[in-house]
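Illustration 12: 3-oxoacyl-ACP synthase.
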Amino acid sequence: MLETKLYINKVCTITSKGLVVDGQTLMINDQNSFVEFAKKIYKKYEINYPKFFKMDNLSKLAFLASEIVLREEVKKEQENNIAIVFANQSASLDTDVKYQESIADKENYFPSPAVFVYTLPNICIGEVSIKHKLNSENAFFVFDQFQPSFIYTYTKQLLDLGKADKVLCGWVELFQENYKAVVYLVDKKNKGAVHQIDSIKQIFN
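Figure caption equivalent — predicted structure in token form:
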């Protein structure tokens, strides 16, 4: 039996340098902070989603990269069986630190439920799923460094076993002003590079 080929279609990279989509630099980051650059991307793509401004920074990063990849893929009139597989190094540390600061001072003890809810890294997957009404498989992994072989194998299994029609994959790392999102879609459409470990390494670097 011939193995079904899978392809990497639509790649979005967001770093402190700028926004790159399918290898083309669409925005250069001339802002001093992630928050300001995120707002510029939000406005450029004319996203209308007020909840975005309540998200923590990790969720904003994952949301924006996912939005750019999925905006032409998700069909509102039908169910979209798109799985999500994300990973990073710092988990939700950026928000964890902010929450810890809010409870550290006993005299000014103001724990924020709005901050606490984001002290799990997989919440960013939830934000993407809610926006696009995705009820499919999802997973968030924490590694010391990007693991292309693991992501490749996990994604391939999801598709081979029929758990999803497409898989949104990504490395979404953020701690303070150090951030990098590389998000891409894997499916059976022959539009991009063949889905293999070397291809994943290439788009990550």
